[in-house]
Design goal:
Number of domains: 3
Protein name: Cryptochrome DASH
CATH topology of the largest domain: Rossmann fold
Shape: globular
Function: May have a photoreceptor function.
Biased composition (Basic and acidic residues): 401-421
CATH superfamily of the largest domain: HUPs
Number of helices: 17
InterPro entries: Cry_DASH (IPR014133), Crypto/Photolyase_FAD-like_sf (IPR036134), Crypto/Photolyase_N_sf (IPR036155), Cryptochr/Photolyase_FAD-bd (IPR005101), Cryptochrome/DNA_photolyase_1 (IPR002081), DNA_photolyase_N (IPR006050), Rossmann-like_a/b/a_fold (IPR014729)
Helix content: 40-55%
Order of helices and strands: EHEHEHEHEHHHHHHHHHHHHH
Strand order of the largest sheet: 3-2-1-4-5
Structural class: alpha/beta
Organism: Flavobacterium suaedae
CATH class of the largest domain: Alpha Beta
Low-confidence stretches: none
Strand content: 5-15%
CATH architecture of the largest domain: 3-Layer(aba) Sandwich
Mean pLDDT: 95
Distance between the termini: 55 Å
Number of strands: 5
Radius of gyration: 22 Å
Length: 434
């Protein structure tokens, strides 16, 4: 059997990783590789970096954890820096690899990168095989063709819940046959052109990257604290660790598999009983699937100002001054400002906050929604391209929202979700509490 490369991307885990399992099954030797692409740390046309300090730190921690786990199998992670279409062929030549196994991409830039890698490897007789590893429901199990995926979530949800099943997870491998892998060399944040994030004691939690930490959080939220029992009632909270699962950062980096989350919820239901909250957690995972399938269906349209609609919002323009006030939490609307300061200082914001600040930028400040999406791309520790751009298009009125003019009233939202000013008092203090 040939030597194969496993090209890790946003699937930084050993559990439920089909690409890794298939590589082991069909190879005499496996070389785990991660490529740090300098393009991921450059500035976009919107003036924000593609990857900021919070997610970069989480990424480096995740790579370190993956390497540590691979070492337990007498393997290891080869980390290279450069364009994947140049670095992966170089690694393939070095180890005489004939196959590359990797996660399948759906977003525009990642898909183009994947195509460049396939073409470069083909020239030296190395084949690439990709697998869908990011969703709860496998793409092949959908009860409709790609072009027929409903553009309304409720229609999608009802049909998929009725007609599709969720596959079992792939267990962690028993062995990983690898040659001697040199010690991993990771760049520093400074080498990537980023600052080290300053800790803030007000943060909802300390997000640490890696599968080990992701599985630890999964167990803590579902079984140790049993916070999932009241998830539907608390999910719109804004202060504290357990008002929501906080799985998103590990899901986005692929340190957690959505199917692993699902099957752990099912174990909980078998032991303690199902309720609206356990269902609602799965419901939220389905939203995540939906945006990924929408990205697969509509592709680059979800990055355009008009989104999947035929016309862009006429009232949304680029207003640099308004955008900067929004970014810095200086709009004068205290609920919006509190949320934006939390994001800037921690890399995280609640789902309730995200909907409000997005609505405010689009419909109150009338700023082109793509600038907000680009800022989130840089700053969010749990940035996921499909969910981020899909959600922003949704709020801006150019995405999958069947309603028109979905405009949040931030004062009413503050009265409903922060009635005692607890959240605003926490984040509107000027000093950063270390």
């Amino acid at each position: 059997m040939p030597v194969s490369i496993v090209w890790f991307k946003t699937d930084l885990r050993l559990h439920d990783n089909e690409a890794l399992i298939k590589a082991i099954q069909h190879s005499s030797s496996v070389i785990p590789v991660y490529c740090i692409n300098p393009n991921e740390f450059t500035e976009t046309k919107f003036g924000f970096k593609k990857t900021g300090k919070y997610r970069a730190k989480f990424l480096l921690e995740s790579l370190k954890d993956l390497d540590t786990q691979l070492r337990e199998y007498r393997s290891g992670l080869v980390v290279v820096q450069g364009k994947p279409e140049e670095e992966l062929p170089r690694v393939a030549r070095l180890y005489n690899a004939k196959n590359v196994y990797a996660k399948k991409e759906v977003t525009t830039d990642e898909k183009k990168e994947e195509e460049r890698v396939v073409a470069a490897l083909w020239k030296q007789g190395c084949l690439v095989e990709t697998f869908s590893t990011s969703t709860l429901y496998h793409a092949e199990d959908l009860p409709f063709p790609l072009r027929g995926i409903p553009d309304v979530f409720t229609t999608f949800r009802k049909k998929i819940e009725k007609e599709a099943g969720i596959r079992p997870v792939f267990n962690k491998p028993e062995t990983i046959p690898s040659p001697i892998i040199p010690d991993m060399e990771l760049p520093t944040l400074e080498a990537l052109g980023l600052e080290n994030p300053e800790p803030d004691s007000r943060a909802v939690m300390d997000f640490k990257g890696g599968e080990t930490e992701g599985l630890k959080r999964l167990k803590e939220y579902i079984f140790e604290t049993r916070a999932i029992e009241n998830y539907k009632e608390t999910r719109n909270g804004m202060v504290g660790k357990n008002y929501s699962s906080k799985f998103s950062a590990w899901l986005a980096m692929g340190c957690l598999s959505p199917r692993e989350v699902y099957h752990e919820i099912k174990k909980y239901e078998a032991e303690y009983g199902a309720n609206k909250s356990t269902y609602w957690m799965i419901f939220e995972l389905l939203w995540r699937d939906y945006f990924r399938f929408m990205m697969k269906k509509h592709r680059e349209k979800l990055f355009l100002k008009q989104g999947i609609k035929k016309q862009a919002p006429e009232d949304q323009t680029h207003n640099a001054e308004a955008l900067q006030k929004w970014v810095n939490g200086k709009t004068g609307q205290n609920f919006i400002d509190a949320n934006m300061r939390e994001l800037k200082l921690t890399g995280f914001m609640s789902n309730r906050g995200r909907q409000n600040v997005a609505s405010y930028l689009c419909h109150d400040l009338h700023v082109d929604w793509r600038y907000g999406a680009a800022y989130f791309e840089e700053t969010l520790i749990d940035y996921d391209a499909s969910s981020n751009w899909g959600n922003w298009a949704y709020v801006a009125g150019v995405g999958n929202d069947p309603r028109e003019n979905r405009h949040f009233n931030p004062q009413k939202q503050a009265d409903d979700y922060d009635p005692k000013n607890e959240y605003r008092d926490l984040w509107l203090k000027e000093e950063v509490k270390q």
